[in-house]
Amino acid sequence: MTMQRPTYGTDSANQNANQGATIVGQTAPNISGPGPAIMAADTLENNKVIGPAGEDLGNIEHIMLDVGSGRIAYAVLSFGGFLGIGEKLFAVPWSALTLDTRHKCFVLGIEKSRLKDAPGFDKDHWPAMADARWATSIHDYYQASPYWSSTAAGRVVSDHH
After folding, report:
1. Are 89 and 81 in contact (CB under 8 A)?
2. 114: burial class by Cβ within 10 Å (0-12, 13-18, 19+)?
3. How do strand 156-158 and strand 22-25 relate by DSSP bridges?
4. In this structure, what are the phi and psi dihedrals at residue 22, rounded to the nearest 5 degrees?
5. Per residue of the chain (161 residues), what is the pLDDT tens digit?
């Protein structure tokens, strides 16, 4: 039995309209407990990340907070390597991700080949994430509106069937 995955678009206009991750899938209000609109950050770490066609892009390693503003700035995505050796890390703007609650993964709206060419780093050499030029270049690469530019919240896309 083959699992059918929805095809995810790369419509940057939708991504730029919000500052948080878009949520798709089962979005009925949760009467008892958190999720999916408010979740513990550690429950999202190690979640799988796929591309628009469903190809595996890696896993969320860390969720980076802008402590001063109280906003999520980036998800650090690990890609490649074997058992943590040779893997490359990428700071992905939070607004560039979609949380798919049905398939329990995140979707990044770029192809694997574009991710391979993205600015990345290794676990021992992190970039200066508070540097405005670096942050702007990362948001530009992923065609995501910078989280510091607006107070808009993430979108929830309900698809109850």
Report:
1. no
2. middle
3. parallel
4. -75, 145
5. 333 444 444 443 344 345 678 888 765 665 566 667 788 888 888 999 999 999 999 999 999 999 998 899 999 999 876 665 668 999 999 999 999 988 889 999 999 999 989 999 998 999 999 899 999 999 999 999 888 886 434 444 444 43
How far apart (Å, rounded) are the C-alpha atoms in residues 1 and 34? Answer: 32
Distances in Å between the Cα of 46 and the Cα atoms of 24, 73, 75, 144 are 19, 17, 11, 22
Question: What length is written for the chain?
Answer: 161
Nearest-CA neighbor of 63 among 49, 51, 77? 77
The C-alpha atoms of residue 20 and residue 147 are separated, in whole angstroms, by 8
> Which pTM value belongs to this model?
0.76
Number of H helices, E strands in the chain: 4, 8
Q: Closest by alpha carbon to 104, among 26, 15, 9?
A: 26
